Amino acid sequence: VQLQASGGGLVQAGGSLRLSCAASGSILNFNMLAWYRQAQGNKRDFVAHITSGNTTNYADAVKGRFTISADNAKNTIYLQMNSLKTEDTAVYYCVAPFENTWGQGTQVTVSS
What we know:
Blueprint: E1 3-6, E2 9-12, E3 17-23, E4 32-38, E5 44-51, E6 56-58, E7 66-71, E8 76-81, E9 90-96, E10 101-102, E11 106-111
Parallel strand pairs: 2-11
Antiparallel strand pairs: 1-3, 3-8, 4-5, 4-9, 5-6, 7-8, 9-10, 9-11
């Protein structure tokens, strides 16, 4: 199964972006799907996850600003990012953690 992330771009601080991650098969096959991010020079950090039962969890740094969701019919998960900060600048990856499957990243750049 492949994961294809999209939706990154350049946005001003305080703005919003929505990332999408399309799976090549049914996302119901995954117990969990997640978003991670990696800022330049840093390690990859957890951002959010959603389980097949629609339970969600967020990193403290994004709680209250980011929302992860899933559309089973479209085999796609989303990351709605609001109130973006410059420190949110990173490459964002869609991940199936239990399968250790990573999609290609999408760059998010937040300017001040």
